[in-house]
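agent> call fold_tool(seq_1)
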Amino acid sequence: MNMEEFKKEIIEDEGVKHEVYLDHLGLPTMGVGHLITEWDEEYEKPVGTPVSEERVENCLKQDIHVTIDECKKLYEDFDVLPVDVQHIIANMMFNMGRPRLSKFKNMKKAVDQRDWFEAAYEMTNSRWYKQVPNRAGRLVVRMQNVQT
């Protein structure tokens, strides 16, 4: 997996905010879609609190590391999947987390069978596809075009 390329993709999809903000669900967030938890120094800080570039970068590195680990738990053969498929799954994992992505059972089955077109179809057959249509649409097209 090309980590620098993946990082660019995530930044493009998530955006970057150097302050505490509320995400579309009203949850406190900062940086590149980093959900603030009680372990973060920004916990319970008001919306608009500035966040340094260094802090944003450190959180993003950690979040990407966690994302890849979660991908490997859900897809035991993650490291041998085509790079585009790795990026697509990791992007979805970053966006949704493992509890939600693990519900994409038919997509997983299609990926396990290396049926990229079916995997793409299963991606469209979800609430996620309607919630983030631009991001999801790009990922579906990429999945449809995977060459093995």
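agent> call fold_tool(seq_2)
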Amino acid sequence: MPDQIHLTVATVIHRDGKFLMVRERDRGREVINQPAGHVEPGETLQQAALRETYEETGWRVELTDFLGISTYHAAANGATYYRVSFAASALGEDRHAVLDPDIIAAHWLTPEALRAAPELLRSPLVMKVIDDFLAGRFYPLDLVSNLHHGDSA
């Protein structure tokens, strides 16, 4: 039984052969990740993906596809992460955005650069969703439903 369960989202943004990635601090070390983070109470998965992407990169994006759900147990902290991943198109960068304090910088990186430095990836999920994207494993966004109190299933 895991000590903690975390519901997170990640956004895969591809442009000109590169992916929008963040360099961030995680428990005292610098790592590379997609724009990603925890879903907040009352927030849809899609809203969380858009918010996290903006807060971590300053980029506004449009979600285009659902990439899937991945589970990862992190031995370092005993937590189990349920990661819901989306593909998105970049709409524009807000160069005045104030990024989350754990974010060092946002970078556009090639898959080859990411594969060359696996020790820098925050978790194995980073390459997994990029590989899913590159393999064309896209699903319609409407696979993720958002019901509100009073809605009928």
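agent> summarizing second result for user.
The chain is about 20% helix and 45% strand. The domain at 4-140 is CATH 3.90.79.10 (Nucleoside Triphosphate Pyrophosphohydrolase).
agent> awaiting next instruction.
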